[in-house]
Structures are given as structure tokens and as C-alpha cells.
Specification:
heterodimer, A: 278 residues, alpha/beta, Elongation Factor Tu (Ef-tu), domain 3, 7-stranded mixed beta sheet, 7 helices, B: 334 residues, TIM Barrel, 8-stranded parallel beta sheet, 4-stranded antiparallel beta sheet
Chain lengths: 278, 334
């Protein structure tokens, strides 16, 4: 747990409206900050204490997040939320596999609570390169029907890589649906496996959002990625506004960081009337 | 306080305008700021066809600024007219439509098609939604090896003339100039001669950021446009120079305005109105705060309204309006 910071803020209006999968956009550096991009952080959980609190987990890996980590209790924070598209929930009780990478898994625990209230089975897979980067192993053990920790070096749980181990876990847990959150490479791998098995997969683009977003509310359009819509056309959609939760098989993982030639507005776009993004 | 701000034949309710590309379609901003209380909302630059823009990373954080190379993403004129402009009209917010093109001909076509849109026809009647057309002359000129129109007086003027010719004379046409030129006043004069009602100053400043992790340029577009408080002195200099050259020409000044005091600096440098851009990304609720702060800043200096502050910095230094506090006597200091 030493790798990450957890912070709880009193924010009743955010707590009240929050649905699992949504995030908050935090301004860093104080009133006269020189850091103008908001930090987009997945929400770990909301509680009704003090009128409503919001807890999030982050890694202090740049000046902005280090400033955030150095806040003390009762400091005020400039925060917008809840933002983005939440995780869709199964209509009927289902077996749900929740796959989280590093501290991205923090965004899955509120989902787990909601799924359990709907009589779903909740199975966790928490993955990270090393033991100290695994987030929420104890909580997952406590609230999950099963919980598997995977580290690359075997320093905690099973040694290995998610793509090798996931098919077996999907089999064992008889998963009807897969939810994943965290690093983009993990989401890409999980989406590929789930769609090969014909299992619906919802991914939350935590890492992509934290790397590319500037505003968090959809005005700047810096966090775009190519996604195939219901009509089969690829559009550049904003991870903050149309996401951060997207259907895994709809994301063109191999084309991230590019504008695919056939994307609407791209160099070889099909001539079709433009519709709003899905 | 009377905040009304005339730009040509149009009078804005107040001098605060959102900067192009910084308010999304308006829908994204609406939850945080009352659009109907803006002086005007400026759209992202509308191009003839849909554009996906550049790949990510498109924005990099730099000291007191953001560096962006978006590649002018947008749905294209047709979708803009069908979806975006009617929505803005329904919000009761005066809209400045930013237009772009890669040739003079493209600018002319887009202006002609805009002028035929219903929102424009109502505007000509005096009650409409469109408060102006902003010509993004920082677009690359395909007929001049991709050099931006704004880099040469003749090219900038040609674009302004093409747009001006298509748009009803009661609707202001503003040319948004780039600061990356040797003499911005020359470009401004050329645009004014070509029929621009006013100018929007400034577009972003060309810059580059390096990603310390990869030791490569941080943006996919390699270089980008710098905005935010980092460019404010550059923007103020441009406004000051252009106002000195053409005192009667309305200027929408902007570059890193985050407070009412920042806005006042632009007014006294010669701006009639001011634009808020990068600040909206950081604090989407800023417009009402900035207007309130501006009113307070004006009142504290005994200035009755924003219009009276325009160009104040150009007047010769005179005895201060407010008597300075009495100098302390020697015995109080010891």
C-alpha cells in the first residue's frame, strides 16, 4: 500500500450523485497554481458520513499529484464530480469478474458493492508487477466470492501475466460479464480475451484518462480514442465524457494514439452523415 | 454597473467572451456556467468537412499554461448547422462562430453557407443568436506551403475580405491573429482595411514541450500552441500595439485571463472585450466570478463601466484618480 495515497474528502453533492465507474477531476497546486490540468481520479468509494464523503486512490508520480498527497486534514480541495459514464449493471443476478490493474482496481470496489446488492457473484482479479503495487487485496478477499492476486514476479499471489491466467479464471468463476479498470495494456488484453469467449466486457480507462485528460468535463477533447459505434463507424470519442467506461470490444486498442484512416473525420472516412458519438 | 459592450453593430451584454475551442459545444460548459450570462460564446473553429483532428497526446501541461496541437477537430459545417448552432440559439447566448479553411475559397464557401443558415437570418433582423464571425487566420494556407494566413498581411486580408463579403454587414467579422509574427500591427491594419469589424487577440503562441519520460516531443503534433497565464504578457503587448496603431478598432483581447484583474489589464491595454479560454478548462465556473471581480476592480478605481477603461494605459500618466495614502511621518517609522 506504500505505493499509493488514499484521500477522503467531504463532498456531499458528489457522494449523493456518484455511480460506480465515475471519476472526479481535482485541481492541483492551490489558488495560484501553475498546473492547469485537472487530475482525473477514479473514486474508490462514497460514504454517508459527514453528509457524504468521497475516497479516491492515486499515485504521487508528478508535481501535481505530489501536491495533492501533501494535503492535510481539513484543507479545502477544488474538485468536480462525479463525472463520466458509469459501469452498466446486469439486469439479472450474474457472475461478475472484476479485473483491476495496480491502483486502477480502486475504481472497482464501489461497483462490487452495487453488484452484491443486486445478488450478483463478485470475483476479483487484482494484478500488478509487484506485491506493493497491488491495491485492495484484503478488501477483495473480504467482499469477493473469490479473489485472485497476480503479480509478475510472484511476490504476492500467483506469479504470471493476466492474459495467460484470465481464461482459466473466467472458466472457474463461470463469469457472465467482465469489468476491468486500470492500465490500458491490461484493458486491451482483458477485452481481447472476453470478446474471444463472447463475454461482455466493460472497461474503465483509468490510466488513459489520467495520462491524457486536461479538463475532465469534455470541453478540451484531449483524451480521445478510436471507438466503433453501433453503426459500425469509428469515431474519436472522449474518454472523460463518452467514457471512462466503454465496451471493451468497441475500442480499437491497436489504434490507440492514432487517428485510424477510416475514423469519421479521418483521411479516408466513409461519406456518411455524422451522428452524435455513442 | 453597465457592462454593455459594443462590437460594430452588435452590443454584448458584457465584455466576457469564451475563447474558441475552450467551451466545447457549449453543452459541456452549461452545467458549470450560465451561458445566457456570457457576453458571447465562441464556437470551436468550424471547417467545411468533419475532422478527427490529431492523435493523442494533444495537450501537454507546461508552466502556467497548456500546449495543444488538436488539429482543429470538429463535426464539419453541416453537422454544426444541424446540431450545434440551433442548440446554442436555444440557450439564449449570443454566439460567435469561428470559421477556418485551408484556402481563401474554402473560407468564402463556409461563410456563404453560414450566412444562409436560419440562425444568421434571424440575427440580421436584430434579435438573433449570432453575435459575430471569427476568422481563424492561424489556419495553414494550403496554397502557401502550409504557412498560416496570419503570417502575411496580404493573405490575412484576403481571407477577411472573402468572409466579410459573404456575411451580413450588421454581423461583426473578427480576425483572430497569431502573435507569432514580426509586426502584428501591420497584419491588423491589413485586416481592418479588408473590412474586419474588429480583431481577436491573440491566438496561441507556438511552442514545444518535451516528455521527460520518453525524451521526445510531448505532443503527437511535435509543436503546439501555448495558452494560459504564461502567454498573458505576449497577449497584452499585442493588444497594446494594435490599439496604439488603430485606436478605434474593437479588440477582443485574451491570453491567460483567470481573474477580473487580468481582464482589466486587457481593457486598459486597449481591448473592448476580453476572452476567457484555458481558464475554462481549469475552472469551468470562472466566467461569473471574473465578471464580478472586474466590476469590483473597476469600482475600486472609480471607473463607472468597462467601456471607460478601454485604452486607459495609453493615456499619459496623470495624477492618480484616488489620492494616495498620506505618507507616514518620520516618527511613525521609527
Amino acid at each position: 500500500m506504500a505505493a499509493y495515497h488514499a484521500m477522503t474528502v467531504v463532498a456531499p453533492a458528489v457522494a449523493e450523485r456518484f455511480r460506480p465507474g465515475q471519476f472526479v477531476a481535482v485541481a492541483v497546486g492551490g489558488e495560484h497554481t501553475s498546473l492547469l490540468a485537472r487530475r482525473c481520479l477514479p473514486v474508490y468509494e462514497v460514504k454517508s458520513d459527514y453528509g457524504g464523503t468521497v475516497e479516491f486512490v492515486f499515485e504521487a508520480d508528478d508535481p501535481g499529484s505530489r501536491w495533492l498527497a501533501s494535503r492535510r486534514s481539513r484543507d479545502a480541495l477544488d474538485l468536480i464530480g462525479p463525472l463520466g459514464r458509469p459501469f452498466p449493471l446486469p439486469r439479472d443476478p450474474a457472475s461478475c469478474l472484476l479485473v483491476g490493474g495496480a491502483h486502477g482496481s480502486s475504481g472497482l470496489f464501489a461497483l462490487a458493492d452495487t453488484l452484491r446488492q443486486r445478488d450478483c457473484k463478485v470475483h476479483f482479479v487484482l494484478a500488478a508487477p509487484h506485491a506493493h503495487q497491488v491495491y485492495g487485496a484484503l478488501s477483495a478477499q473480504r467482499i469477493g466470492d473469490s479473489s485472485t492476486v497476480i503479480t509478475r514476479d510472484g511476490s504476492l499471489g500467483v506469479a504470471g501475466m493476466v492474459p495467460d491466467l484470465l481464461p482459466g479464471i473466467i472458466d472457474q468463476t463461470e463469469a457472465d460479464v467482465v469489468y476491468a479498470a486500470g492500465p490500458t495494456s491490461l484493458l486491451s488484453a482483458v477485452s481481447g480475451i472476453a470478446s474471444a469467449l463472447g463475454i461482455p466486457c466493460q472497461v474503465s480507462l483509468g490510466e488513459l484518462l489520467s495520462r491524457t485528460a486536461a479538463c475532465g468535463i469534455g470541453v478540451c477533447a484531449s483524451c480521445v480514442l478510436p471507438v466503433v459505434g453501433d453503426d459500425g463507424h469509428t469515431r474519436m470519442v472522449r474518454a472523460c465524457a463518452e467514457g471512462p467506461v466503454l465496451r471493451g470490444e468497441r475500442v480499437r486498442w491497436g489504434d490507440l494514439g492514432t487517428i485510424p484512416l477510416d475514423a469519421l473525420g479521418g483521411p479516408r472516412a466513409p461519406q456518411t452523415p455524422l451522428e452524435a458519438a455513442p | 454597473m453597465n457592462l454593455t459592450t459594443p462590437i460594430g453593430a452588435v452590443t454584448l451584454a458584457n465584455p466576457l467572451v469564451t475563447a474558441s475551442g475552450c467551451g466545447g459545444t457549449g453543452r459541456e460548459l452549461a452545467p458549470y456556467t450560465d451561458l445566457s450570462r456570457l457576453g458571447a460564446f465562441t464556437t470551436a473553429t468550424v471547417m467545411a468537412r468533419p475532422r478527427a483532428g490529431r492523435p493523442t497526446p494533444r495537450i501537454a501541461e507546461t508552466p502556467s499554461g497548456l500546449l495543444n496541437a488538436m488539429g482543429l477537430p470538429g463535426p464539419g459545417l453541416e453537422a454544426f448547422l444541424a446540431r450545434e448552432l440551433p442548440w446554442l440559439a436555444a440557450q439564449d447566448v449570443p454566439t460567435v462562430v469561428s470559421v477556418g479553411g485551408n484556402t481563401v475559397q474554402e473560407f468564402a464557401e463556409i461563410a456563404t453557407r453560414l450566412a444562409a443558415a436560419p440562425a444568421f437570418r434571424v440575427a440580421a433582423g436584430g434579435t438573433g443568436a449570432v453575435a459575430g464571425v471569427e476568422v481563424n487566420v492561424a489556419c495553414p494556407n494550403a496554397e502557401d506551403r502550409g504557412r498560416m494566413f496570419a503570417a502575411a498581411p496580404a493573405a490575412a486580408a484576403e481571407v477577411v475580405r472573402a468572409v466579410r463579403g459573404a456575411i451580413h454587414r450588421d454581423i461583426p467579422v473578427l480576425a483572430k491573429l497569431s502573435p507569432d509574427v514580426t509586426d502584428i500591427a501591420t497584419i491588423a491594419l491589413a485586416c481592418a482595411d479588408a473590412g474586419a469589424t474588429g480583431l481577436s487577440l491573440i491566438n496561441t503562441v507556438s511552442g514545444l514541450a518535451i516528455d521527460p519520460a520518453t525524451l521526445r516531443p510531448a505532443l503527437s503534433g511535435v509543436s503546439g500552441g501555448l495558452s494560459g497565464p504564461a502567454v498573458r504578457p505576449v497577449a497584452l503587448r499585442c493588444v497594446f500595439q494594435v490599439h496604439a496603431a488603430i485606436p478605434d478598432l474593437p479588440i477582443v483581447g485574451g491570453g491567460g485571463i483567470a481573474t477580473g484583474s487580468d481582464a482589466l489589464e486587457f481593457l486598459v491595454a486597449g481591448a473592448t472585450a476580453f476572452s476567457v479560454g484555458t481558464t475554462l478548462l481549469h475552472d469551468p465556473s470562472a466566467p461569473q466570478r471574473i465578471l464580478r471581480e472586474l466590476e469590483e476592480a473597476l469600482a475600486a478605481r472609480g471607473v463607472a463601466r468597462p467601456a471607460d477603461a478601454v485604452g486607459m494605459a495609453h493615456r499619459p500618466a496623470s495624477p492618480p484618480r484616488i489620492a494616495p495614502p498620506p505618507r507616514p511621518r518620520i516618527e511613525e517609522l521609527t
